[in-house]
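2024-03-11 09:14:02 DEBUG pipeline.ingest accepted 1 chain
2024-03-11 09:14:02 DEBUG pipeline.ingest length=214
2024-03-11 09:14:03 DEBUG pipeline.predict start
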Amino acid sequence: MALGPARRRGLGTEVADVIREAIFEGTYPPGAALREVELAEALEVSRGPVRDALKELEREGLVRTEWHKGSTVAQLSAKDVAELDSLRGALEVLAVERVVTTNASLDKIALAAEKMERAETPHEMVRCDIAFHDAVYAAADHGRLAQAWDAIRSQVHLFLITRVALSSDGYLQQIRDEHRDLVAALRLGNAEGALKLFAEHRRHAFDVLTRKND
């Protein structure tokens, strides 16, 4: 079979990028309707790329579509919260152990933590938090682990913006302090101590979302 020319990045993917950013900025909170016609008009595209974009975001776990109800920003159930937290924890164990045991460079991890000092809003801090964990997985230098993180990355972002929507009192300083401690633990090369701090960091968000679902 002869191969044809490679397709360029589709318009649907570009539309997905715009909608994803709007979700992460809080323009479309969990449960908000994502209407094809309105999105197409706002983005000045036809409904086809919007439909493709919503399918892409559905695969990421950011959007849910129901027959006769259309698409909405995903709302995390108690089961979703528990599954994301447990899977994220399992991935972080391997990531942290590799960072410590391989003496990986911590420069980009430390830089990501430093950027948190300049975050002024909860949504901006969530982005910094995700970027910090991106840096940890990159430093772990494990291709399949990075792919596994990428598969849940958008859902973890949704998890965290759901958390700040429920409670943001003291959030900015808490996240700064926690990530300074995480960097310090990694610098010490103590995997057990670092993993304990990573688990505590996850638990704070988990507890907020769990209280919501009680």
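2024-03-11 09:14:41 DEBUG pipeline.report The chain has a mean pLDDT of 93.
2024-03-11 09:14:41 DEBUG pipeline.predict end
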